From TrEMBL, chain A:
One Gene Ontology CC term in the entry: membrane
Keywords annotated in UniProt: Membrane, Oxidoreductase, Transmembrane, Transmembrane helix
Listed GO MF terms: NADH dehydrogenase activity
The protein's enzyme class: oxidoreductase
Protein name: NADH-quinone oxidoreductase subunit NuoH
Entry annotated with the keyword Signal: no
EC number: 1.6.5.11
Topology term for the membrane: Multi-pass membrane protein
Subcellular location: Membrane
GO biological process, one term: aerobic respiration
Transmembrane segments: 15-37, 49-73, 85-108, 120-140, 160-178, 190-209, 236-264, 276-295, 315-338
InterPro entries, per the entry: NADH_UbQ_OxRdtase_su1/FPO (IPR001694)
Presence of keyword Nuclease: no
From TrEMBL, chain B:
A matching Pfam family: Complex1_49kDa
Assigned EC number: 1.6.5.11
GO function terms (MF aspect): NAD binding; oxidoreductase activity, acting on NAD(P)H; quinone binding
InterPro entries for the chain: NADH_Q_OxRdtase_suD (IPR001135), NDH1_su_D/H (IPR022885), NiFe-Hase_large (IPR029014)
Keyword Oxidoreductase assigned: yes
SUPFAM superfamilies, per the entry: HydB/Nqo4-like
Top-tier EC class: oxidoreductase
Native source organism of the sequence: Candidatus Methanodesulfokora washburnensis
Keywords annotated in UniProt: Oxidoreductase
Protein name: NADH-quinone oxidoreductase subunit D
Coiled-coil parts of chain: none
UniProtKB/TrEMBL annotation, chain C:
Segments forming a coiled coil: none
Residues covered by the 4Fe-4S ferredoxin-type domain: 43-72, 84-113
Lineage of origin: Archaea, Thermoproteota, Candidatus Korarchaeia, Candidatus Korarchaeia incertae sedis, Candidatus Methanodesulfokora
Record protein name field: NADH-quinone oxidoreductase subunit I
GO molecular function, one term: 4 iron, 4 sulfur cluster binding
Record-linked Pfam families: Fer4_7 (PF12838)
Assigned keywords, A-Z: 4Fe-4S, Iron, Iron-sulfur, Metal-binding, Repeat
The organism's place on the tree of life at top rank: Archaea
GO annotations of cellular component type: membrane
Gene3D superfamilies for this protein: 3.30.70.3270
Record InterPro entries: 4Fe4S_Fe-S-bd, 4Fe4S_Fe_S_CS, NADH_quinone_OxRdtase_chainI
A GO biological-process term: aerobic respiration
Naturally occurring in which organism (per UniProt): Candidatus Methanodesulfokora washburnensis
Length: 339, 389, 160
């Protein structure tokens, strides 16, 4: 009976979601798979194989596990003149805070860890905490390249945060609620991306801007500033910071799937009660978005910092205001949602 | 804050992912570069001094190797200067074969420069595609000369090997492959709005400055100066083939990239004409052919591989000086040999195009942004070992 | 954002997707596949003891001073004069092929081996008797031929 009790506790939503799915363990597995997938996708476009030799019939999929084991056993070199406390703690905080918003993500209409009237706002607000630690990393490293990288990250944060909030909130205006469960339920008929495509496209581009995907890989631009804020890191600290941006993308794409791609809809009524099926549909949608972000590495070069900031202020901000306007028009025109 | 505290001095040194074998000392104010000084000499190996201790034929591999990947230009310029000293001219078939190898080298040297430039601005696809597409050309050169990159193919009096059978068909297949790939290159890289935004208007070199500073090669032609040594002082088979000198008006990094891309097309044209018009005949000058013993001469005529006369081990050039100029992939290569009648030259002077383009670093990056440094560096197609020799 | 820029963005992504699903691969899986090198490839040198006339032209022309003449003791004692034969140092050889091209009796020839590895520095030196033994190097891979192709650039086909 002990095992049965433990399983009962494990499948309680407030333990299952943050810990297993879509929480820590699922984020970890996504991280392992998406790093391998990014290298394979880039290799296929670039006429070569990518990682292949570790378990050759599987296409080298265990490569990331091998890399992780190497990072665990590698000595992290701590330079003499760094600010030690900040240097050692910021990667841990960065990785931890990157997946914190997952606590408010529901994976079924009645399966959620934390329900509140403001869960969309909570999720977005928690994603803004991570860049503080990137800036702190650059300062703590006592290296001119890291300084330049963290200043770039600071500039980028200011230019993408406002449009992301406005685009997400325009959908909240449309649905009339800030509760993620109700937003997902409201899209039983039609997905949000068809109602307000301007907000959808805008938020997609900004999502990639906030997590350093090409063409916005600016704070860690390799050919200009070595690795930006992450220059002085080695060993497991390096593994953590490299994984943090992927985890942030994963969490943001979960929020995006609920806002625009209907969450777990369209599912027939019989299956909607089962959290595993609705959770899998949500997971597949967000994984496709993460994989698309990885695919963009093979297509685009990198923007310059002033061009990326110009895109944020001159194109994304007006587009997000237009999307709010569209939402207002639709609401005034009589679009209502039933929960 | 005073200006000294605001300004960062950044050492983009040899241990940097995108600096090559040189150090760039940059003074940065915010995101704007106020001064960029290149610090060259990291890979100086005193090629010119070593050449004073080696015999004339031994210098051929020596001067080839600084200028990877454009080895044929150095080889050709040196042998042309030596032939002027010796007072001989190669036979016509050898001149056409020299042109063939020079144009194949030009194509894969331009692809190398474009690929490195791509990865410096972040597009790893451009890098992998350019380097993958060099591979058919290296296979062609391997069939012709026996090596992939350092050919040592051109010797005083002619060339070392004749074209193998079926070579012209293979060349035609590879040229058609390259032409077919150009559309995909333009779609994914050259017409990509991000690439254009990174390269257009960056590092503008005006026409007067290009002439005054002495820029060479595609950097000069991208600023609307139609100067090409192949037209100004024709050598090898260039008087007999028709081609255009590619220029662009804008003078920015994108113009330099476009000049190189279009020069690949012109090289394809030249190779096709060379293969059509190549005359039959010997590939080594008759003065040296008659020095080969008769049995070896039969073998040379049947296999097409030259056997050196034993004179080559102790070749003496008469006293005098000679200068030869060649248009390499990166620009003009000048060789100046002073001989005093011995088996080694008295002085060998080698002016490489990258050495003449170094001055553009300081001039073009005034007022540019930090992210423009790799964009300008790659567009100049600067190769540090070639400049340092 | 003008229409032209959006179209070019879309074209770039479509080209990337096209290569993602149907892109060929240019990699040769070395060392499981070994490339079949053409005739006349400039690899390591093989030396024929009997036809060598000991003219030492190869040592005179070598640009990297890789070939040096070693005194061959037994032959010197037999013929009552100094007899020298060439030996090669592969740490210095640059595979230029001048020695093969100048040898008047074709005693030096090219083999197709270019990727030999040694454990110590001394193993690079081949005195004349070891030089005459030839290159003992076995490739345990599958031989593939390089075919130049119009659509794919390079194709690899196994030789059998």
């Amino acid at each position: 009976m002990q095992v049965q009790e433990i399983l009962n506790i494990l499948f309680e939503p407030y333990i299952f979601i943050p810990l297993v799915f879509p929480g820590l363990i699922a984020a970890f597995i996504v991280l392992l798979i998406i790093i391998w997938l990014e290298r394979k996708i880039a290799a296929k476009v670039q006429l070569r194989y990518g990682p292949l030799y570790i378990i050759k019939p599987l296409g080298g999929v265990i490569q990331t596990v091998a890399d992780l084991i190497r990072y665990l056993f590698q000595e992290p070199i701590i330079p003499k003149d760094v600010d030690k406390l900040a240097f050692l703690l910021t990667p841990v905080f960065l990785f931890g805070l990157a997946y914190l918003p997952v606590v408010v993500i529901p994976i079924g209409p009645s399966y959620y860890a934390f329900r509140s009237d403001l869960s969309l706002l909570i999720a977005l607000a928690l994603t803004t905490l991570a860049p503080i630690f990137t800036v702190l990393m650059g300062w703590a490293s006592n290296n001119k390249f890291s300084l330049i990288g963290s200043v770039r990250e600071g500039y980028l944060v200011i230019s993408y945060e406002i449009p992301i909030f406005l685009s997400a909130l325009s959908m909240a205006i449309l649905y009339g609620t800030l509760d993620l469960v109700e937003i997902a339920e409201a899209q039983r008929g039609i997905w949000g991306i068809f109602l307000n495509p301007v907000a959808a496209v805008n938020m997609l581009v900004l999502m990639y801007m906030s997590t350093s995907k090409f063409p916005f890989e600016i704070p860690e631009a390799e050919s200009e500033i070595v690795a930006g804020p992450y220059t002085e890191y080695g060993g497991i600290l390096y593994g953590l910071v490299m994984g943090a941006s992927y985890v942030k993308l994963y969490v943001l794409s979960l929020v995006y799937s609920i806002l625009f791609l209907g969450g777990w809809n369209p599912l027939p009524q019989s299956m909607i009660g089962n959290p595993f099926i609705s959770g899998s549909v949500l997971f597949i949608k967000s994984f496709i978005l993460v994989a698309f972000g990885a695919f963009l590495r093979a297509v685009y070069p990198r923007f310059r910092i002033d061009q990326a900031i110009g895109l944020g202020w001159r194109i994304s901000l007006p587009l997000s205001l237009i999307s709010i306007f569209i939402s207002l028009l639709l609401v005034m025109g009589g679009v209502r949602f039933v929960y | 804050m005073e200006a000294e505290e605001r300004e960062l001095e950044l050492l983009i040194g040899p241990q940097h992912p995108a600096s090559g074998h040189m150090r760039l000392i940059a003074k940065i104010d915010g995101d704007v570069v106020t001064e960029l000084r290149p610090d060259i000499g990291y890979v100086h190996r005193s090629v010119e001094k070593i050449a004073e201790t080696k015999k004339f034929l031994q210098i051929i591999p020596l001067v080839e190797r600084p200028s990877l990947p454009d080895t044929t230009a150095n080889n050709l310029a040196y042998v042309m200067a030596l032939e002027k000293l010796l007072g001989i001219e190669p036979p016509p078939r050898a001149r056409y074969l020299r042109t063939l190898l020079a144009e194949i080298t030009r194509i894969h040297s331009h692809l190398y420069g474009l690929g490195i430039h791509g990865v410096m601005i972040g597009s790893s696809t451009a890098y992998m595609w350019c380097f993958g597409d060099r591979e058919p050309f290296l296979q062609l050169a391997q069939e012709l000369t026996g090596a992939r990159l350092t050919y040592s193919y051109i010797i005083p009096g002619g060339v070392r090997r004749d074209m193998p059978k079926g070579f012209a068909d293979k060349v035609e297949k590879v040229l058609r492959y390259m032409e077919g790939r150009m559309k995909d290159y333009f779609d994914i890289y050259f017409n990509n709005p991000v690439t254009r935004a990174r390269l257009e208007g960056v590092g503008v070199l005006k026409r007067e400055d290009a002439i005054r500073l002495g820029a060479v090669g595609p950097n000069l032609r991208a600023s609307n100066v139609p100067y090409d040594v192949r037209k100004a002082e024709p050598y090898a088979a260039y008087p007999d083939v028709e081609f255009d000198v590619i220029t662009e008006k804008a003078g920015d990094s994108f113009a330099r990239v476009m000049v190189r891309v279009r020069e690949i097309g012109e090289s394809i044209k030249i190779i096709r004409q060379v293969l059509k018009r190549i005359p039959d005949g010997p590939i080594l000058h008759e003065n040296y052919e008659k020095l080969i013993p008769p049995k070896l001469k039969e073998q040379y005529k049947s296999t097409g591989i030259v056997k050196f006369p034993s004179l080559f081990a102790n070749l003496k050039a008469p006293e005098g000086e000679a200068i030869a100029r060649v248009e390499g992939g990166r620009g003009e290569v000048v060789f100046h040999i002073i001989s005093d009648g011995k088996t080694s030259p008295y002085r060998l002077r080698m002016v490489t195009p990258s050495f003449r383009n170094v001055v553009l670093f300081e001039h073009l990056t005034k007022g540019a942004r930090v992210a423009d440094i790799p964009a300008i560096y790659g567009s100049l197609d600067y190769f540090p070992p070639e400049a340092d020799r | 954002m003008s229409i032209d820029r959006t179209v070019r963005h879309v074209k770039a992504i479509i080209t990337g997707t096209k290569y993602l699903f149907s892109g060929p691969r240019m990699t040769i899986m070395y060392p499981e596949d070994i490339e079949e090198l053409p005739e006349g490839y400039r690899g390591m040198i093989e030396y024929d003891w009997n036809s060598c006339i000991k003219c030492s032209l190869c040592a005179m022309i070598c640009p990297a001073d890789a070939i040096k003449m070693y005194v061959s003791k037994e032959e010197s004692e037999k013929e009552k004069k100094i007899v020298k034969r060439p030996g090669i140092n592969y740490a210095r050889c640059i595979f230029c092929g001048f020695c093969v091209d100048i040898c008047p009796t074709n005693s030096l020839t090219f083999s197709k081996v270019h990727d030999m590895a040694y454990y110590t520095y001394e193993e690079h030196f081949y005195p004349p008797d070891k030089f005459a033994e030839g290159i003992k190097h076995v490739h345990k891979g599958r031989r593939v031929r390089v075919i130049l192709d119009e659509k794919r650039g390079i194709k690899y086909e196994p030789v059998d």
